[in-house]
Amino acid sequence: MKVLRTSLFLVVLLLLIGVAFVWFNRPAKVDLAGYAPADSLLYVELNSPSEIARAIQDGAVWKAAAPITHGNTSSESRLLTTAAQAGIGPIDAVLFARSQLALVVVGLNTAEENDTLRVRPEVALIAETHTSEYRTRPAVEAAVKRLASFAYGASNCSSRSADAEYIECSVGGGERKILAAIDDTLVVMGNTENAVRSCLEARRGTRPSIVTDPELVRVRSSLAGEKPLAFGYISAANSAKLFSWAAPLLMGRAPGDQQLEQLLAVSAGKILRGVAWTATSTDRGIEDRYLFSLEPDVVARLQPAFQAGERDENFWRLVPENFQSLTIYRSKEPATAWRSLDSAVSLKLDALPAVLFASILKSSLSVYGIGNPKEVLEMLTPPLLTFKPSPVVEGSVLVARVSDEARLKRSLVQDSFKSGNGQIVEGIQADLDPEAEFSAVFADGYVLLGKTENMLSCLAALRRSQAIQDSKLKQSTHDSSAPILTVANDELRLTNFISTLLLLQGRQLSGEEIARLHESLRDYTFSSTETRLSSAGIERKTRSAFGQFSTFTSLLRSDGSGVIGR
Hints:
The chain is 42% helix and 25% strand. With 566 residues, the chain is of the alpha+beta class. It has a domain at 39-210. Strand 15 (438-443) and strand 16 form a beta hairpin. Helix 3 (60-69) runs antiparallel to helix 19 (511-520). The longest helix has 23 residues, at 2-24. The protein is globular and about 75 Å long. The termini are far apart.
């Protein structure tokens, strides 16, 4: 009996010691904003990659794809994750479980290439590993080489010691490279030396960090109750700067006019107060929430644009089945909504900037052949919708119910189509002149407007009786009360996300497996985004299988728009 009591005591003691070891060896969280430069264009923090992985693994899409990917479920890995968080296990598992991650964009470089403007962001990935350097270094070296091979193929890699331990892989000594710095428990990996250096200096205190931004602190604190998986932030100044770079493209002008960009940046700064993003786990996948903070009086002027009108679901017969994305605008009075946008902008701006912003607003409808929005919108009633007809078509088509068909036709002839660059036809069976730039098709009390090349694709699908039939999709859009609702076909993004993760693990799906993957994901194709106006500004909530995490993963691909692969 005495031996038994002693044995039980030793077993209990060992268990207590093990629990205590695991508990006290769990990493203490740090504020990664202190590692990011204060002037970062974009800051994103992922404080627990293992929780993100668990949320994805718990989702219906991951489970549906498991027979093809042979992926583990979260229940199978929680015990291993707990051990890894205590520093027990293979180093890759330990780093994944213990690390905090942040992604920063420190700058944008632009260059013209064959009459095309290419944008190359300077990006850095910050990893606070909470793990000693001697354990971290071999894993980081292997990861950099594997990532370089994945992104570039053949590359040259070298190591050096300076103020930190550096590993660099590049293609023929060119600009395309991956550089990683190991400084104690910190790892910074980027596509330029400037990106890596900026983060190291912020962490060492020789450069201001973004943690000093009071708006970031305020917004992050206000969203803490949601227990987000991730948080992202763009400051007011950088929101305005990014807008000033994108706006000239909307106006049909090439970027690079510094005076124009400065004027737009200063003007946008009077309206925007920053952008915040969070990602949370839901029973439907990942919910991404975006908050575009605006000045209070601007919010007040925008109210009419977000007042929803009567419902009309008859437009579905004019939407092709294989559409790529679709946005429904339910503004009660489209013309009033347009005037409210114009009023909100002019409220804060002087005469010249107000004219420029009005031109940007107008250009958003000129791509559909609408030259005079104020007049044309008077003849349209809700809902208005825009959609991209198919994945292979670049542009989109506008559909709206018409209140005065004869007047609208006169307006188009006298304004938008007066130079002979447009055509007006009746019914979806009508033939279009492919030489005309724009087309207006009147059918069953609606009008379809857009560039002829986009309209040809749309009408061809509708003539084959391929209007959208998905009753589940129609019901979900009907049930939403959002004044602006967007649905998008995520099939390609879901497949790319899963195949990229497998490629990083050294496995490539066969053509047959990709076909089976498409079939298994058929019931999870669409994502939805609701846009509303709150007292703080414009809020957007997107529900999808993998959220923005799938976008971050796509940055690694060299065969698409990946940053590292550029």
